[in-house]
Amino acid sequence: MASLGAWPPEGTAREPPAIHLLKPLFGSGGLPVDGATCASWRFGVETNNVRGWRTVPRSCEGYVGHYMLGDRYRRDSAVVATEAAAYAEGLQLPGDGMDVWIFDIDETALSNLPYYAHHGFGVEPYNATSFNEWVDKGIAPALPESLKLYHKLLPLGIKIVFLTGRSEERRKVTVTNLKRAGYRTWEKLLLKGEGVKGTAMAFKTGEREKLEEQGYRIVGNLGDQWSDILGKPEGARTFKLPDPMYYIS
Amino acid sequence: MASLGAWPPEGTAREPPAIHLLKPLFGSGGLPVDGATCASWRFGVETNNVRGWRTVPRSCEGYVGHYMLGDRYRRDSAVVATEAAAYAEGLQLPGDGMDVWIFDIDETALSNLPYYAHHGFGVEPYNATSFNEWVDKGIAPALPESLKLYHKLLPLGIKIVFLTGRSEERRKVTVTNLKRAGYRTWEKLLLKGEGVKGTAMAFKTGEREKLEEQGYRIVGNLGDQWSDILGKPEGARTFKLPDPMYYIS
């Protein structure tokens, strides 16, 4: 393996920060009082050390807000997408149309940052009613780095499978939203059927099993939660996007 | 699950930064030119997105050096150790002496930061000769957070298994070093036998299999590399310490 050399690799210039055109932080607009500590909490979360948390620590609202609205979230996402694209481009694929890449939806294909920016960036407990009202608008923007990766995977003959914990009743608005955000084609859109119990991880693992039974090869799997990418079969290689706003088991 | 509430939890006051009493950064002593980008590279590394890298990007030497010698490395490690201790203290154990916790050694039980501080914090390619000369001195300090966790696990009746890619020929100096650093008792010290081929992950997975065959229950597993904590049986719960200096597959 060669040294990484220059960082970032060529061709990773950033797009205009479209999802950042949001109103400024509400509440704590200044620098976080205890930035280093919130940064370490984020380290713990992103490395799957800190699990089962329900809300962002209140003292970290400012820190997480600045992270999400600033350069860091975009840059961290770009590292993941760049690595994923390099991996995909290095694959030798048979070209029989059975190679798929799994994309989670929320905070992966689509960004709910416009919603969370008005709800304390994860400091407020999850509110299904208000979150679903947002989802039903169908206006979530793409996470730009995920969309860029999507556009690199399609020409390689890799098909896209969206696999989401969103419920089946939101299929229509999800289709509308994905297309509006720039995802124009996919092999499957797998949502959680009514009455499906258990964790997101169990649901998603089960759906990946079914894909393999159908003859698909899962060459890649991209999500913002560890529950998206753990559990066999997880895919030949998994990629973890940042998400310090919420935890799903 | 309750909210995390205050962060850090009570009782996580930091010890004096003993392993920081090193000479200042050599070479780049100032702030990194491109800190945010090196920070995102580190995110990619710590989340197992960026794999198979041989050296820290040269432009990130200053960033990684400041990270390692400053508060962040200690604080990030403390989050992991605190979470691990809380998990361990919540376990219901049968008390039959068969519950074990696996500790990796380098950058987990012991810190080689005094060595890496003189070798570019991972910017220089790995040099087995000079690294082994350092190891043979047997003076690596404990990673303080790991030692603290060790001291919390023992009274719970959890036995310690050290599992390391260090070779069997370094058993004696490793024993000396562990004791000198404050690890006074353990159930097993598993080193890599002569002629063992393959990746660290394969070796460690195989050793964990043997432990389970011997009737041990691996209740926890702590390492700085993903190859320490991936591969079934990985242990009931795994914990990933920070290490932006090198990658082992």
Concise overview:
Chain A has about 250 residues and is an alpha/beta fold. Chain A has helices at about 35-45, 60-70, 70-90, 115, 130-135, 145-155, 170-180, 200-215, 225-230, and strands spanning about 100-105, 160-165, 190, 215-225, 240.
Fill in the CATH topology of chain A.
Rossmann fold
Q: Helix and strand succession of chain A?
A: HHHEHHHEHEHEHE
Number of extended strands of chain A: 5
Q: Kindly report the spatial arrangement of strands forming the biggest sheet of chain A.
A: 3-2-1-4-5
CATH homologous superfamily grouping of chain A? HAD superfamily/HAD-like
Strand content of chain A: 5-15%
Question: Percent of residues of chain A in helical segments?
Answer: 25-40%
Largest interface (CB within 8 Å) is between: A-B, 44 and 43 residues
Based on secondary structure, the structural category of chain A is: alpha/beta
**Termini of chain A, distance in Å?**
35 Å
- Indicate the overall shape of chain A: globular
Which architecture name of chain A does CATH use?
3-Layer(aba) Sandwich
Number of discrete helical segments of chain A: 9
Low-confidence stretches of chain A: 1-36
GO molecular function, one term (chains A, B): acid phosphatase activity
Keywords (chains A, B): Glycoprotein, Signal, Storage protein
Protein name (chains A, B): Acid phosphatase
Family (chains A, B): Belongs to the APS1/VSP family.
